Amino acid sequence: MDSISEKHIENGKTQFLMVLILGIITVFLSLFAMGQGSSSNLDMMSTINIILGLEAATELQSDIIWKLRFPRILMAIIGGAALAVAGSLMQGCLGNPLVSPLTLGVASGAALGAAFAIVLGVSVLPYSNLAIVANAFFFSLIVVAIIIQLGSLRSISAESYILVGIAITFISGAVVSTMQYFATDAQLSQLAHWSFGSLSRPDLIQVLAISIAVLGLMPTAMKWSWDLNALSIGGDEFAISTGVNPAETRRNMLILSAFMTSVVIAFTGLIGFVGLAAPHMSRLIIGNDYRKLIPCSAIFGAFLMVFADTLGRTLFAPIVIPVGIMLSIIGGPFFMYLLLANRGGKK
Amino acid sequence: MTEIIDVTNLNFSWGNNHVLKDLNLNLKENELVSIIGINGAGKSTLLKCLNRILKPDSGEISIFGKELSDVDLIELSKHISYVPQSIRSNFSMDVFDVVLLGRRPHIQWMIAGEDREKVSKTLRYLNLEEFAFRRFDQLSGGERQRVIIAKAVAQDPAVYLFDEPTSDLDLKNQIEIMKRIKELISAPESSKSALIAIHDINIAARFSDRILLLHEGRIIADGTPQEVLTTKNIAEVFNVTSEIVNMHPNYIRIIIKDEINEKKTNRTVIL
């Protein structure tokens, strides 16, 4: 094997090692996060031992772990991974680094659904404790259906998808604002809380269902890595010359990422920043090869979400700051620092 | 020589602008064919129709005897590689990885050793090895153009469609790249061919086996450089006077003298 090929393999190994280290850090952070909480007799080691069945738990301890901490941390991992992967797919297939999972209007659709349930009491699952979630999911699926319809149009461009997403966001925002105008104080408060983005809402069964959906979709995303590489690096004409159908790739990736986003934010509320920042942070480490970028974004997204949530739970304990807020507060400056440091290094 | 591409009565319009009119052409193995014509003559449009980037209004295009639209896109990219003048993107990669995209039609998901070897060989062949692990977006326009050409070479197609492959290159690199392309095409074991849209008629004259003169949507001359690049044809298409000089038994040089002003107009020089 010649020296250029060897160096390429060597670079790949270094990048794999970096992703592995990030993954290990994320695992340890998650275990640490498991041990954080107001219950003083449940530290990190006891929690791990109880989860692994090495230590007998009281009923209270069992409830704390399996009803509160485990679903929350798992939701952080899966939610962060899903939103980050959705963001990276959307940025690649639309060739636009400013795009995030919220750009296509999926989140606005979810917010509209939540507002219908909270303010008007109208839901696809009425009289259920899942009324808000079901509505948020249903309305975000309507946005996914609009994306599918758009994709079937001849010669729909990347810009058109983004502009339609912005239009959906404006329309949904206007309807939500109208409902807010006529809402009671209690309804307003509930709607505001929904929009903060929180990991405490879904229970264990729901988190497991979300995990199955997200993990089931990840291999599909990975399968399209080469197509995304060609499309994101060279645009439509370059992609066609390498055997990639840009319209089909764009449509499939947008549906996939919109669906992943819907599944998560219907349960958690609006969490936007991770979908923009995690892919870019990953690009700084691993580059733009989607075969590596997708797993790296997933791990970075999980890391950011667990980190922000743990900080939100412990910083002003017992007050819990919603993860959506924490992510933007700590992630924003970190993101800016990384970008500026990277630009500085290039000169 | 085996015919690779055959085009019959091809028509293409941009809105009301009828760009290609009942165009006919063919491309055979081991042939380097240049298309020349004025700006907007339809050179790039023709190349894009041949690679299914654009859909013609009517006409037939066949590759190895198969209707172009019936060929699966992956299969087509094993036969044809289109090389745009430049690519612009918000994302970048190392040069090695950009050239590796040329192997995309040949691989499933994992990169095989032979794909890496092919990329390495291509980089060396086009004198790009020093750029292998530099970021594509940090290269000059000419270097980027050579990388895109390298990606097409690594793709190993039967037909190269080059759109102005030398437009951003310095004089030395223009000659070097064209020599390499010519080598790839004329090697008896290669059975490849190239269709090159080009403005530099001297480059076309020196390296082409055949030149197609595209004018007002039709090919008005098709033949060897000596047959096509006559002072009369050049005057008709480019509206300039010229002189043809025999440089070598095998190729000619065209010296452009002046524009032909059909109507004398009084223009004010704006300084």
Provide a compact summary of the structure.
With 347 residues, chain A is mostly helical. Chain A contains 13 helices and no strands.
List keywords for this structure.
heterodimer, A: 347 residues, mainly alpha, ABC transporter involved in vitamin B12 uptake, BtuC, 79% helix, globular, B: 271 residues, alpha/beta, Rossmann fold, six-stranded mixed beta sheet, four-stranded antiparallel beta sheet, 9 helices, 31% helix
Plain-language structure description:
The complex is a heterodimer of chains A (347) and B (271). Chain A has 347 residues and is an all-alpha fold. Chain A has a single domain (3-346), classed as ABC transporter involved in vitamin B12 uptake, BtuC (Orthogonal Bundle). Chain A contains 13 helices and no strands. In chain A, helix 1 (3-34) runs parallel beside helix 12 (290-314), helix 3 crosses helix 11 and helix 11 runs parallel beside helix 13 (323-346). The mean pLDDT of chain A is 86. Chain B has a domain at 3-88 and 157-259: Rossmann fold, CATH 3.40.50. Chain B is built from nine helices and twelve strands. In chain B, strands 6-7-8-3-9-10 form a six-stranded mixed beta sheet, with helices on both faces. In chain B, strands 2-1-4-5 form a four-stranded antiparallel beta sheet, covered by helices on one side. The chains are: A mainly alpha (347), B alpha/beta (271).
Helix and strand topology:
The complex is a heterodimer of chains A (347) and B (271).
Chain A: H1 3-34, H2 44-51, H3 59-94, H4 106-120, H5 131-152, H6 158-182, H7 185-196, H8 204-223, H9 225-241, H10 246-268, H11 273-286, H12 290-314, H13 323-346
Helix pairs in contact in A: 1-12, 3-8, 3-9, 3-10, 3-11, 3-12, 4-5, 4-6, 4-7, 4-10, 5-10, 8-10, 8-12, 11-12, 11-13, 12-13
Chain B: E1 3-14, E2 17-28, E3 32-36, H1 43-50, E4 58-63, E5 66-67, H2 73-79, E6 80-83, H3 95-100, H4 113-125, H5 141-155, E7 159-163, H6 171-186, E8 193-197, H7 201-207, E9 210-215, E10 218-223, H8 225-228, H9 231-238, E11 240-248, E12 251-259
Helix pairs in contact in B: 4-5
